Amino acid sequence: MPEIDARIAALPDKSLLLLDDDQALRTRMGRALEARGFEVTTAESVAEATRLLRDKAPAFAVLDMRLEDGNGLKVVEAVRDRRADARIVMLTGYGAIATAVAAVKAGAVDYLSKPADADDVVKALLATADEAPEPPDNPMSADRVRWEHIQRVYELCDHNVSETARRLGMHRRTLQRILAKRAPR
């Protein structure tokens, strides 16, 4: 993507705040964004991100919606208060319309479902107001989206199969069969 690399190289301020409580995703995404030319600062909590914002307001931010100590929307507002021209992309494991609307109203320029590809994040960060971000080159299949959602709810229920099945409105044995399978492509 030489065109995008050139756009990043031409940016006067390449500072980027990456906020996610998933360490593996934070590390992987941080390295990928640094490889593309951004100056990445990472945070794992709302408190840490807020503290980092006191020192410097970044030109770009990639923020997780749901975190251990709060909601990423608070960080969107904090970034907007410190730097009105910042470009913010929200990430979430929950692709709900209501949360997407809330993120955009708070000041995010785009909203992506996890696991998001670094190229999709960069496209969203660099998209101008008159151009919509391109659809992903390799979108997740419907089966994969369903599997990711089930896994996330399962994690939130502390790996309790009965509670997860109740919240998802499915039979416990059906859920056990789904959890025993490998992730779809």
Automatic annotation (TrEMBL):
Positions of modified residues (4-aspartylphosphate) = D64
Answer yes or no on keyword Phosphoprotein: yes
Q: Name one Pfam family in it.
A: HTH_8
What the entry lists under Gene3D superfamilies is as follows: 3.40.50.2300, Homeodomain-like (1.10.10.60)
Judging by the UniProt lineage, the source's domain of life is Bacteria
Question: Can you say what this protein is called?
Answer: Photosynthetic apparatus regulatory protein RegA
**Ranges of residues in domain Response regulatory:** 15-129
Q: Which GO terms describe its molecular function?
A: sequence-specific DNA binding
Instruction: Report whether Disulfide bond shows up as a keyword of the record.
Output: no
Arranged from A to Z, the UniProt key words for this protein are: Phosphoprotein
